[in-house]
Each structure stands twice: as structure tokens, then as C-alpha cells.
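Figure S4 source data
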Amino acid sequence: MLARPHHGGNLSWAAEIAGCPAFSLLDFSASINPLGPPPVVLTAIEAAFTGLSHYPDPDYRHLRQAIAAYHDLAPDWVLPGNGSAELLTLAGRTFGALEYTNLVTPAFGDYGRSWHGSGARLNPIPWTVGSPWPWSRLGTDTNHPCGLIINNPHNPSGTLLSREDLLKLLPVYQWVVIDEAFMDFLPPPEQQSLIADLPQFPHLIILRSLTKFYSLPGLRIGYALAHPDLLTQWQQW
């Protein structure tokens, strides 16, 4: 029997067990938009096929400019990554200097992989889905050099945390990662993003992904939004 994967979306594993082609399966194991990629994306990919024989710009200037314009930021506040997994690995290295990082569990498994692989310590805060969010346990560590990683909307529960409540937590921590991989599923008036608050909080890191909402996991594009000094360090790493 093949070893069960730790992450959803592994169609090759499932297809080998089922004895069928991978893309004949209907996959409910990964939280990806079932409508598929937007047609304009497929058109753009087809138009760019000739570029496959060339190395891309190592600084991804056009991509950074496009993402920055979308979020009303300067391009040096944007760092694309090989999916959020690469960016989480870099974040784990940054958080490794802290005493620990608070994480409400259950949570996305790559947080643990990234932090443990970097020698950083996670402090799990168990939470039962459906019960009140444990705000009191997240805002009491002012005497310790600690960090916080939190995703909003929360995965796997879908709980949406308010921008106002999250802003109250920022002064407590030395570094904070807000993973907004699922924020695009909400209509713009209902989104609770902290992107507009980045200039006021140089210790805040926001992660976004094209995987979930745009249904592009095979393209491997995520990006971090954070202070240019931090992103310059990440690029050097």
C-alpha cells in the first residue's frame, strides 16, 4: 500500500490506488475553487508558451509590479514565491529567533513543516471548531519575544476573523504572519484583509496565493506582502 500523503490534492497517489488516470478523478481532498482557472489565465498561459525556452527575469519585476498595483503598494513590498510553501519556509527562518510562535490548531500542516524545518518552535493553542475564537489566549504574551501565525479566513473551519480584532493583536508580537490564502472567496466589501495596514506595522507579513481561489495549484505562485527590508533579506536567503 502506498503511503498516505500528508497534503490533499495528490491525484497521482489516488489514481495509482484506484487504477485510473489522475484527471478522471473528482478531487475533494484540497480546498481549491471547483470552477477552475479563469479563461483569461488560460489564454495568457497559451500566449506565453514561447517563453518556456528562456529563463525568466530572476527579480520578477513585471509580476511584482502587477501584484503591487492590484494591492496599491510599491513593488518592493511584494515577493513572489514558489507557492506559499516556499514563503512559509522563509518565514520559519525569520521566526526561528523568537522564543515561540502561537498557532491556533487545527491548522494548515505546512506551518508545522516550515517552523520545525527551520528550528523554530510552535506553541499550539487547541481550539474546537464552533466554539468562540481564543482571543484571550492570543493576546497575553507581551513579556516574551514571540510570534503569531494565523490564517484568515481560518483553514479548515472557514471562520472569518475581523480586521479590528486582528489589529489589536499586532502590538503583542515581534513578528506576525497573516495567511490570507482564502480571502478572495469573500466579496470585497466583506473581506477583512490587513494589507492596507502594512505600512503601519513593519513586523507584519501577509501571504496570498493564486492556488485556492484562482484554481492554479500547478502554477505554484504565492506571494508575500511585507516591509521591503524583510523581503530583501528573504531574497538573499
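Figure S5 source data
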Amino acid sequence: MWKRSSLPAVSPPGPHAPGLTLVELLAALSILALVLTLAYGSFFQISGAANSLKGELSEQQELRMLLKLIADDLQSARYLANFATKQTTKAVNATGIVARVRFVGKTEFSFIGFHAATEARFFRQRPPELDPGLHEIGYGVQEDRDNNTLNLVRREDYYLDADMESGGVTVILERRLETFSLAFLLPPDTAGSTAERWEREWNSMERPEGSRMPRAIRIGLGLMGRDGQPLRETLEVNLPDALKVGS
């Protein structure tokens, strides 16, 4: 025969039962607030560092793209042997590469002009199908006194003449320029030396026959980042054999 089991009676908590006092609760809330503050601070610090790194990588990518544009133009440089003429020691029709070092303010920068077998990038006076595929291209530095900055500019012209440093259309590529330098690798000398020799200036019209173009060109480019830190890159462009003497 089944019997109903009796359950022990549960007595209500007495006045001295364990629990949290108001002081302990306030202390726990203070500790929790401190932990959350540290966690949020770390999160925003990491997020800010990530955004800063992302911006720096973006600027570095922009710098490399600018270097690639200059390198692509230089690799299309040509010496037009049939175009070049001389009258005693003065060039009537200049061609190839003409590069000089000049001061802008108190800083030295490179300036370069050359003939390039490439289509126009910015100078669209003619439709693409009528583009001659041969232009004067130049790179240099201009001072913007209103904004106290230095601009890297690219010049592009359809016409071939004795002046390889002016004319055509000039486009500003960068407004935060810090450095722009070029160096030219000389061809091997007649003594057969294999040592590399670099020069900061070049004039194809003054080079000996058979060495009117450099073997390679070193491009140094520096910009001021938006965070105030400088960004710098260097790139060497090897000129193919077909570009050394031109045709």
C-alpha cells in the first residue's frame, strides 16, 4: 500500500541569512564599469590604429601607382635619330632624354623631358584613333606659394621641336611632394669597366654615338603623408636594348 512521503518544511530565511550588502553591490558595479571602460578604450585604440594603418597603406599604394606611371612613361622613351639635328654644338632638334637638376626654393629637384612612343594620357586634342603615338613628356616640380606646397606635374605635348621643356598640357599629379630625384646609369666605358656609374643629369644629344640613352633610370619619390609622416619609394627602370640608340 502506497504511503505519502512527507517533505521537510522549508523555513523562511532568518535575519542573518547570507547575501549582498549595498556596499558590496556598489563595489561590484564600480569594478564592472572599470572593466567595461578599459575594454571600450582598448577597442577604440585598436580600431584607431587599424584605421591609421589602412590610411597609410592606401597612401603607400597611391605613391607606388604614381611611380608606376612615371616608370611606364620612361620605358617608352625614344631617341629619334632621324629627327635629331645639330648645328655646330647647338642642338636644333632635341630628342631622347634631357634631364637637369634645379632648385625650387632651397631644395634640389629633378626635371626631365623626353620623347615617348606612347598614347596620350591627358592631352586629348585628337580622338584616340588619330593619336600619333609619339609625344613629348616631361616631369617637374612647381611651387604653389598660395598653399605653401610643392606640386609634381606631368607635361604632355603632341609636337616635336627643339624645346623639350615647355608647351602642351600640364597636369598636377601630386600636391604634397617632398622629393623627386632621377639618376641615370651610364653605359659601360671603353676601358671595359663593369662598375656601375650613375649621373643625376642626362642629355641624349650630348652623348656619344651608340650611347644616347641610359641603361637604366632610378626614380626617387617622396610625399608628405596626411598624418605628417613622410612616405618614400625608389624604383629602378631598366631600358631595353632597343631604346638605347633609337631609330
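Residues 22-75 form the longest helix (54 residues). The helical segments are 22-75, 242-245.
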